[in-house]
Amino acid sequence: MTSISESYDRLHPRSAQLYQQALQLFPSGVTHDIRFLPPFPLYVERASGCRKWDVDGNEIIDYVMGHGALLLGHSHPALVKAVTEQIARGTHYGACHELELAWGGWVQQLIPSAERVRFTSSGTEATLMAIRLARAYTGRDRILKFDFHFHGWHDNVVGARYADSDLRRASGVPAAALGSQVTVPQNDIGLVEHTLAEDPEIAAVIVEPTGASWGTLPLAPGFLAQLREMTQRFGVLLIFDEVVTGFRVSPGGAQKLYNVIPDLTCLAKILAGGLPGGAVAGRRDILSLIEFRADMEWNFSRRVVHPGTFNANPLSAAAGTAVLPLIADGEAQAHADAMAERLVQGMNDVLEKRGIPGCVYGLSSMFHIVLGKESPRPRRGIEWPWQAANGAPPPRTELSVSLALRRGCLNNGLDLMGLGGGLVSAVHQPADIDASIEGFDRTLVQMQEEGIL
Ligand SMILES: Cc1ncc(COP(=O)(O)O)c(C=O)c1O
After folding, report:
1. I need a surface site. Which of 119, 125, 246, 381 has the fewest CB within 10 A?
2. What is the per-residue pLDDT for 166?
3. Is the CB of 417 under 6 A from ligand 1?
4. Where does 77-327 sit in CATH, by number?
5. Largest Cα–Cα distance in the chain?
6. Whose CA is nearest to atom 10 of ligand 1?
7. How distant is the alpha carbon of residue 349 from its chain centre?
């Protein structure tokens, strides 16, 4: 019997070779934390639709989908046309341009809270700017966030509690930045109320509106509405981090889906159609702090400054302007959701058939896999009973099992994201999903044979 590791090495010799070069260049040979996959990650040569091909010629059905940026799949024809035409016209004017108006207009039209929009280069920059605006607007310093919610990697958000313990995931972050964050478990509105009442220095509450880490821990129904009411009562701003959920869970994001309108919204990923880009959108009076006013002139101390070489760059604007109209009616999302449901149910059937403890669950077109742990499976649809998650850390597969799952799935033609899960797009078709379920089944059988499960 060939083991998963042996097959992985045998199928991917060129990737192994390139990784040796990479180790001389990049820390751990990778350029993003979640691309780290021992003994080596795959090197991809090209991608199209829901598939990508690695440098060894293996065809893979993709569930990373540009870390969630590619709701319309890789290299959608409309995107290729728009970006190709734009590149010939210039990639950076160092000036205003009409495409940024069209792009911002789509954001304003689709995202309910977007009275005003400011483009950034990434989701991390979007949460950085939202937090700075909240501090400037309220004159307070601290931010309330939730355990396991991810908002990028800048100093204001990485230090928060992320593990079962109070471990602060924050090497290199100044103590002052850590001290400006208060982190509490999600779904406990009483604790939020208590914290806001006790701490008059809190400027804003920031939340992933489908729960921690793109829904790994779902939010209790009604929690967002409670947060809205509570923040208003205490004069605290509410920030939705819709970097993943924006345009995905509905064309207007989670705020449209749940009909809860935050003061500020952070966007990225789908916003820029697969190119780099982010934005803060929100209340006009809050974003007006970026405005130049006659009495301020260039006095930087009195306004929120915001340069940024690649803000609203023409290529990202072209990509975003090509993609957003195509997802505005909700059909792309409905298809992606249906494909995710087919995948999740098929994967849960495999777990059932093979007698493996664990579950696959998710929300909209996002899914998460837990293996080797007793866990309730979604009874209908794909949503996990949120009560099961209440107060607890996200259910996680043991690291060694996750890594074997990822390698095994790659051997069997599907690429999962991070430690197991992924994002489904509007171009995945039933046949792709069924092939993925079969690949998942083959992987689990191999894992059982090897005693990994
Ligand atoms: C919810 C959320 N916020 C912020 C970010 C950071 O975005 P970026 O990677 O574009 O900096 C991410 C990235 O995955 C995210 O998932």
Report:
1. 381
2. 47
3. no
4. 3.40.640.10
5. 76
6. 123
7. 27
Query: pLDDT at residue 164 above 50?
Result: no
Between the CA of 106 and the centroid of ligand 1 the distance, in Å, is 21
- Mean pLDDT, the chain, integer: 93
One-letter amino acid for residue 76 of the chain: H
Angle at 407 between CA 404 and CA 408, to 5 degrees: 80
Nearest CA-CA partner of 236 in 195, 297, 179, 180? 195
Q: What would the pLDDT profile of 175-221 be if each residue is shown by its tens digit?
A: 888 889 898 989 999 999 999 999 999 999 999 999 988 998 889 99
Q: Which atom of ligand 1 is nearest to the CA of 149?
A: 1
**Cα 244 to averaged position of ligand 1 atoms, centre (Å):** 7
**Does any ligand 1 atom lie closer than 6 A to the CB of residue 242?**
no
d(CA 40, CA 42): 7
Joined together, the tokens standing for residue 190 give 């009483």
Q: 4-74+331-449 adopts what CATH topology?
A: Aspartate Aminotransferase, domain 1 (3.90.1150)
Please state at what angle helix 430-449 crosses helix 331-354, rounded to 10 degrees.
Answer: 30
Pocket-testing residue among 150, 155, 156, 239, ligand 1, by greatest number of atoms within 8 A of Cβ: 150
pLDDT in tens, 71-129: 999 999 999 999 999 999 999 999 999 999 999 999 999 999 999 999 999 999 999 99
Domain with CATH 3.90.1150.10 in the chain: 4-74+331-449
